[in-house]
Design a protein that fits this description.
It contains eleven helices and 20 strands. Strand 1 and strand 2 form a beta hairpin.
Amino acid sequence: MKSRTLKSVSAVFLVLFAFNAVAELNADEKRMVEWIDSHAEDAIALLEETVNIGSGTNNHEGVRKVGVVMLRELDELGLGTEWVEMPPEVNRAGHAIARKSGHGKKILLIGHLDTVFESDDEFQSFRREGDTGYGPGVDDMKAGNVTIVYALKALHEIGALKNIPVVVVYSGDEEKTGTPLSISREHLIEAGKWADVALGFESAVTFNGTDWATIARRSSSSWVLEVAGKQAHSSAIFSDKVGAGAIFEAARILNGFYDEVRGEEYLTFNAGTIQGGTDVEYDAQQNRGTTFGKRNVVPRKVIVHGGIRTISEEQLERTREKMRAVVAASLPNTSATIRFWDRYPSMPPTEGNRQLQVSMSGVNEALGRGPMPALDPARRGAADISFVAPYADSLAGLGALGTGGHTPDESLDLTSLPLAIKRAAILIYRLHNDSNEN
């Protein structure tokens, strides 16, 4: 494993501008910019093609079809391509992977093929109105997938791609990962261990007139609380024989989480669903349940399903221990258990990530858009790049600019697609050249 130094999380907000960050474009970079501008409509056409293929996570056929399109494009660039099918027990389509050898800094480019819009959703096709594109996954993250392809095409145009060692991983289940993670993320993690640098291509962030670099992301994991009480006539509740009942115990625990666990910087946790009564059934995979109970019966069962987000694995484990302690202090004649599941790990800010920020800021300035400070990690969700962050210096948010992700209003500023391609192509070019100079 590469040696990496974790700095204080508060340093995320520092804006670093190194003296050697190149703020002007050289001749090769100008050629790439011109080529990207002249092929902007081609990039939008590829975006439209993929958006028009429905690829909700559970639409395995659709995910595979988007993978075929992306591998077609990468195969034309001379990359070795493969489709990695997931075993039946994972219940996910698989991943599209492409790679090529070279010398110097090894670069991993990360996208995903799936969207949150399943086959029965009415939001299924691309629509263009002027410089705005609408459609399922147009922002999250089919524009990022296109950005990867066209950045590599721009590098190919100037003859630079042949020298750069690259792996591209398009996962097929980023929106809802298959389990076990040891299988569904095996190939991504292998690529992360190979790489020196990992770049994630989910949407970029711009606000208050400033472009922001993502050098840290919080984890996303889940928990299920199950509470048992003694069923009885409600006239006897709180008695020594009957006790508090499951719902009061669940309320105590949730209030304890709020009072005793809440408060650390970058820590959030949420109780997303709660079912309580005499009879409770809950499917955590579908996030659906049924409940039966009566006002004159002390409830015997409660199930609460929630999530946790943290900036580091240490913070996650500390939080889980505090939650376990709250759960253990049961009210009379009740009992409770809490179970935790890992989903996405955190991507802490590191010195290597900050150096990537410096490089990206120099690219942005060279393109006339100003410096890029580091984004507050509380403003982003989890993503696949976090699985490789322990092994490679990582930078996320290299996609285009969109809004309304995961909603029927999802849209993309189509003028930002060539910008994203330019930033990615120039960054990869500079990272490769710097590694060879050093």
